[in-house]
Amino acid sequence: VVAVVLLALATSAYAVAVPPDGERYTEFYVSTENGEGDLSFSDYPERFRPGEAEPITVGVENYEGESVDYSVVVQLQRVAGDANDSTVTRRVPVDRFSTSVGPNETRHVGRNLTVSDRLTGESLRLQFLLYEGPVPDQPTADNAYRTVHLWVDVDGGTGRLSR
User: Fold this and answer.
1) Quick one: which H or E segment has residue 153?
2) What integer pLDDT is reported at residue 162 of this predicted model?
3) Strand order of the sheet with strand 47-48?
4) Minimal CA–CA distance to 136: which of 91, 73, 54?
5) pTM of the prediction?
6) pLDDT digits (tens, 9 = 90+) for 37-86
7) Which of 68, 55, 56 is nearest to 27 (CA)?
8) What is d(CA 103, CA 116) in angstroms, rounded to the nearest whole number?
9) What Å distances lie between residue 52 and 30, 47, 89, 122, 155, CA to CA?
10) Which of 16, 33, 71, 109 falls 20 to 30 Å from 44 in CA-CA distance?
11) What is the pLDDT of residue 161?
12) Where are the beta strands (DSSP E) in 3-145?
């Protein structure tokens, strides 16, 4: 009986210490901070004014089984069409940064996003593109590892929204 109990304990300890190879993936998300400094997945900025910074926190959770160097590109995009058949008609870079995340670790990167007046109007897509390693010459949702976006309005130089 003692041998069976020891064998069961050893097997359980091994199963916990060396989990089987499962699905490898990365979680990628955008959040804000509430008044207490906690992450919030609501109250995203809906309106940007050119030259004024808006704080955003980008989250990357690495479940790839090894350390990964990630790159993030943020673009402001004008999109034509509907959700099932949309086309980016114009894109303007907003931000770009890199971060390393160890296996089974989470990294929250606070960024102050500032848009220019090169693209203004309503219902613009603020697209966050995640890459494993370097960013390609033409970063798009099609060549990104993960994407997330927010819909925002950007005031024109007159304080009014324009297309």
Assistant:
1) strand 146-154
2) 43
3) 47-48, 146-154, 121-132, 68-82, 85-101
4) 73
5) 0.82
6) 889 998 899 999 999 999 999 999 999 999 999 999 999 999 998 867 88
7) 68
8) 36
9) 19, 11, 24, 17, 11
10) 71
11) 45
12) 25-33, 39-40, 47-48, 54-63, 68-82, 85-101, 105-113, 121-132
